[in-house]
Structures are given as structure tokens and as C-alpha cells.
Amino acid sequence: SQQGEEDPQALSIQEGENATMNCSYKTSINNLQWYRQNSGRGLVHLILIRSNEREKHSGRLRVTLDTSKKSSSLLITASRAADTASYFCATSTHHYGNNRLAFGKGNQVVVIP
Amino acid sequence: DAMVIQNPRYQVTQFGKPVTLSCSQTLNHNVMYWYQQKSSQAPKLLFHYYDKDFNNEADTPDNFQSRRPNTSFCFLDIRSPGLGDAAMYLCATSRPPMETQYFGPGTRLLVL
């Protein structure tokens, strides 16, 4: 199964700075999603970008998708201490009408107050 | 609030002793998923139910089984847990054609 791969895997920044994470994948996708996971908790959906979209914004989040390079990036602007979490990209393929996600390894982001 | 609930949050079992993890949802979603997440790794899909139809991933060990008695509940059964099965188990739901998945808080399994 295909799987996103994020780069870099650990990022430590000061509050107010921007954080950028990258993700690469290997095969065709329907969409790519980013999720956040706080330590020891479940995942929370952040943003979805479809294969025919190039850029999408949601609040302080900006995601880009380059299907020719099979890569995506997530930018968090003006980071806050509450943004400290692991961030995963997940590629979506449809399987008999429902959505299967393949998750990448994740980026650990630490925002220092 | 509509949500995905997993119980218990922490489960300790002994090597080889069957264990069941539970997931319930108030979202009325027709698809339910089980993921395994080992420390510092990505969640890995084990299987999912689309309504009553069970879909197993090709590389999910036979040791893992699942039951979905109704729309709201789904169970993960580990028949003979090994030390390598210690992980966080995440339940998620979705309702096609929406493509977002909603996750529970997870159950952390420890095998002694």
C-alpha cells in the first residue's frame, strides 16, 4: 500500500515562527489529508486537499500539493505552544466506495513558548 | 457531542491471554476502522467495516479479529497477544462520500 513520508521528522521552533513539513508519496491518490496527534491521543483531521487542487488554506494552515512530484507541504503560520504535536499526512484511495488512508511516519513539532 | 469513544484507555494483558478492545460512536457513521500504531510510527490500518461488510488488510495477522454487532459498536479481538502487539489501537469512523475520518482517543495495550 502507498504511504506518505514526511520530512523532516522533528522540528523545534519558537512561538510565533512558521513551521513547514513535507510529505511525499508513491502512487496516484484521490486526496491527501493532514492530521494532528497530541501525545498519547487520537488523531484530529486538519485539512484535506484533492488531487486536482494545488493549494488550500484553513486558518493558520496552508497546504500545497504537487502531484507531478507526488509531494505535499503543510505550513503552520504564527505557531503557538498549543501546536506542539505530531503531524501526519495520509494519502487516500477509494476502496469499494469507501475511503482508505495510508499514513506517513509523522513530524514531531515542538513549539517553545 | 457526537464522538468516537474507546474503552478502556489503557489495557494490560498477559502474553497469550485473549483481549478485546471496544469502540463506540454516536456519529452514525457507516464505516468503522481499526488502526494499530506502535511507538513513534504511523498508524497502520488493520481492517474496516463498511456497514456489515468486513474488509481485512492483506498483511493483518490472523491473530487479529473484529466484530461489529451494530452500527454504533465495533470490537477488536486479539486472540493470543504477543509482546509485539503492544501498541496504541485507534478506532476511526467515516461516512462516505465524506472523506474525513474521525478518531477516538485510542486504547494503549501493554502485553506482559
Verbal overview:
The complex is a heterodimer of chains A (113) and B (112). Chain A has 113 residues and is an all-beta fold. Chain A contains no helices and eleven strands. Chain A has strands spanning 5-7, 10-14, 19-24, 31-37, 43-50, 55-58, 61-66, 71-76, 85-95, 98-103, 107-112. In chain A, the strands form two sheets. In chain A, strands 2, 4, 5, 9, 10 and 11 form a six-stranded mixed sheet that branches. In chain A, strands 1-3-8-7-6 form a five-stranded antiparallel sheet, with no helix packed on it. In chain A, a hairpin with a 2-residue loop joins strand 9 and strand 10 (98-103). In chain B, the strands form two sheets. In chain B, strands 2, 4, 5, 6, 9, 10 and 11 form a seven-stranded mixed sheet that branches. In chain B, a hairpin with a 2-residue loop joins strand 5 (44-50) and strand 6 (53-56).
Radius of gyration of chain A: 14 Å
**What is the percentage of strand-forming residues of chain B?**
over 45%
Topology, number of strands of chain B: 11
Quick one: overall form of chain A?
globular
How is the secondary structure organized here?
The complex is a heterodimer of chains A (113) and B (112).
Chain A: E1 5-7, E2 10-14, E3 19-24, E4 31-37, E5 43-50, E6 55-58, E7 61-66, E8 71-76, E9 85-95, E10 98-103, E11 107-112
Parallel strand pairs in A: 2-11
Antiparallel strand pairs in A: 1-3, 3-8, 4-5, 4-9, 6-7, 7-8, 9-10, 9-11
Chain B: E1 4-7, E2 10-13, E3 19-25, E4 31-37, E5 44-50, E6 53-56, E7 64-67, E8 73-78, E9 87-94, E10 102-103, E11 107-111
Parallel strand pairs in B: 2-11
Antiparallel strand pairs in B: 1-3, 3-8, 4-5, 4-9, 5-6, 7-8, 9-10, 9-11
